[in-house]
Amino acid sequence: MTQGFRSFVIFAGMRTGSNLLEATLNAVKRVTCFGEAFNPYMMGWPGKDEMLGITRAAREADPLSLLAKLTDKPGHLPGFRYFHDHDPRVLEPTIQDRGCAKIILTRNPLDSYVSTRLAWETNQWKLNESETPIPARITYDGDEFRRTLSEAEEFRRHVVSRLQATGQTAFHLGFDDLRDGDVITGLLHWLGRTDLARVEPARDQVPQNPQELAQKVANFDAMQADLRDMDPFLLHRLPVFEPRRGPAVPSFLGAGAGRGLLFMPVKGGPEQAIRDWLDRLGPVADGFTQSTLRQWKRARSGHRSFTVLRHPLLRAWEAFDHLLARGNPEQREVLRRLHRVALPPDDALAALTGDARIAVFADFLGFLRRNLNGQTSLPTHPTWASQTEVLSGFARFATPDTNGIIH
Q: Is 264 exposed, middle or buried (0-12, 13-18, 19+ CB in 10 A)?
């Protein structure tokens, strides 16, 4: 197999055509798709409670044992379908496995939503040419559609981001590609099956609801009106050019015996005051690595973690004060020369008070806006990095249970 793939995963969602893709792959010798192997409500397919000698109870206790058994088939190409609500313990090991080919299958989200609702209404999830579709219409629910759209998009973004971060590429398929023999043949060749001259899509399934949406949605006019208020092109999204931050684990503070408290500090906040408070609870541990922090957390079952946020203007003032009193002289010189911040010479900084200090602070806020938008050559300093991005950095390891706000 030219790509070196030993297995594959299909990242998809309900009613995206994954059943048809599975049927197509299963028609190829030495290729097997084991359905929704990690669906918490079944094992691969409806009505099954066992797969490859592993029961649902055993899978629940250790899903990675099934993953290992499923993907270890020398001379064979096994795989499975994975949706956003499948066992989350399997996702990262699957992404990290470079021998597992990633296939991303998508469909127009409104078509998927309507098709899913119709399937629930009729309990008809697949249709072959000898069966008759059950006629039905659905009632569009805007809140429900937005929720499913958000879940699907968040899942897709996460998968793509993790593949980018690990230097991998996926084979992308759209719903309409599934009946294109050229595309399907290209997929099998990409998977390493270059011995196949041509692969035709499976013919044992037919479209269930080929009519236009107006015939499938009872409140079609209301749906159109609701969709007008959506922003599919994200015209109102604020772009983020600020560099991503890491989890900053070495800055965390652990304190207290028993369950324990973990403080995840945001620079520019009341770090010293919180540390003084933690000191009164017991010995404070710091200088964590991710490994030692995991050990600390395991030893304190039921621990709580928290951070403290400040009003952005107060935090910017703290960053400005840090720049004047403890900042890098070269950094201040760059602000003077290139960024139109009217800082007096370093030997006159102590005399910068009152209205003059406020005027220079206004210049600094202008620089700060440009810096967070990626418009300056200076790196974003931790004391003025946005709290949103700092929290996103925490989330790459763990999220705080509680946020405090200091006004």
A: buried
User: What's the CA gap between 49 and 38, in Å, rounded?
Assistant: 11
Sign of CA dihedral 206, 210, 216, 220: positive
Written as one string, the DSSP assignment of 339-403 is S---PPPGGGGGG--HHHHHHHHHHHHHHHHHHHTT-SSSPPPTTTS-HHHHHHHHHTT---SEE
pTM here is 0.71
**pLDDT digits over 12-33, tens only?**
999 999 999 999 999 999 999 9
Collapsing DSSP to helix, strand or coil, 186 comes out as: helix
Contact 90, 40 (CB under 8 A): no
Task: Measure the CA–CA gap between 354 and 374, rounded to whole angstroms.
Answer: 31
The order of strands in the sheet holding 171-174 is: 31-33, 77-82, 7-11, 100-106, 171-174
Q: For residue 190, give the H/E element and its range.
A: helix 181-190
The model's pLDDT over 319-353, given as tens digits with 9 standing for 90+, comes to: 999 999 998 999 999 999 999 999 999 999 999 99
What is the Cα–Cα distance from 136 to 113, expressed in whole angstroms? 14
